[in-house]
Amino acid sequence: MTSTDFTNLPVQDVIASFTLDKATTRGRFVRLGALVDEIVSRHDYPLPVARVVAEAVTLCAALSAMLKFEGIFTLQAKGKGPVGLVVADILTDGTVRGYAQYDAERLGTLGKNPSFKALLGKGYLAFTVDQGGEDQRYQGIVELEGNSLEDGIKHYFRQSEQMEVGLKLAVEKTETGWQSGAILLQRLPDESEYGKHRPSDLEDSWRHSMVLLATVTPGELSGTGIEPLRLLYNLFHEQDVEATGWQPMQRGCRCSREKVESVLIALPEEDIDHLKVDGSVTVTCEFCNENYRFDDAQIAELMESRQHTATAG
């Protein structure tokens, strides 16, 4: 739940909302510390892959904060490169998770510092809002463009939403772990309720916002040395910056043993037999890397449960 009481505003793992120039521009500031470090550290990702996952989680949080929804927002980048898939999703309450799929052999041919284009290759970027039910699901897809995930998102808004946004992202690995930050600005329509501003004033305001956003350093975005509200004031005090709310974030996964059981029960027995290694089936959650192991006795119990359910039906 978003709070307007800033006395307990965290330095990290938080989304802060704000407006500029009498609400002609809407903004979101995300800063992640222990949260993004735990998401990345649960997998033994190579450094370039870990960085892309951290970027996806951070940008997913910033984008979701622009929306009004009850459910799940998902950011997905899929390509034909060594990193075939990067996914991050966030619930309305700020619970976030993320992971990547990659080909270690192909990745090894790219060297130490491969570009984003080299990592993902040609592909697409998708945003999905799922509020439950087919009629409450929205998805936007655009070709993956640019030299970063940040560039791809800017391209999405230009092509699909015809909306002007400003975005600055920083991700770094420090001695204490991964940390990240992002500022996302959204220009509101000139014909909105803020029509008392002349169009030229709105244009000048937006250009000024972009100039100021470009001055923020990676350390200021992702570091703990400056509090979120202080950073926003330092950047945008000339534009009457006003903080409007904040929401804490936390890592969380929706996997469970019960959900894995329901998947196994739905599989034909021959498929389950193919999954067995040394007499047991182990299912690993791609998001949190949690292992769920089922031995022969437990598998037999699940099959018996399925049979009883079918008979009762």
Structure, explained:
The chain folds into 2 domains: 6-251, 3-Layer(bab) Sandwich (Hsp33 domain); 257-312, CBS domain Like, CATH 3.90.1280. The strands form 3 sheets. The chain has a 6-stranded mixed beta sheet. The protein is elongated and about 70 Å long. It has helices at 34-41, 47-64, 104-108, 116-120, 149-161, 199-213, 218-222, 228-236, 257-266, 269-275, 296-312, and strands spanning 14-20, 25-32, 72-79, 83-91, 95-102, 123-130, 137-143, 165-174, 177-187, 242-248, 250-251, 280-284, 291-295. The protein is built from 11 helices and 13 strands. The protein is of the alpha+beta class. A hairpin with a 6-residue loop joins β6 (123-130) and β7 (137-143).
Distance between the termini: 42 Å
Largest sheet: 6 strands, mixed
> Which spans of ≥5 residues are poorly predicted at pLDDT below 50?
none
- Individual helix count: 11
Stated plainly, the CATH topology of the largest domain is called Hsp33 domain
- Going by CATH, the architecture of the largest domain would be 3-Layer(bab) Sandwich
CATH superfamily of the largest domain: Hsp33 domain
CATH class of the largest domain: Alpha Beta
Number of strands: 13
Q: What is the string of helix and strand elements?
A: EEHHEEEHHEEHEEHHHEEHHEEH
C-alpha Rg, in Å? 22 Å
Strand content is 25-35%
Strand order of the largest sheet: 7-6-3-4-5-11
- Quaternary form: single chain
Number of domains: 2
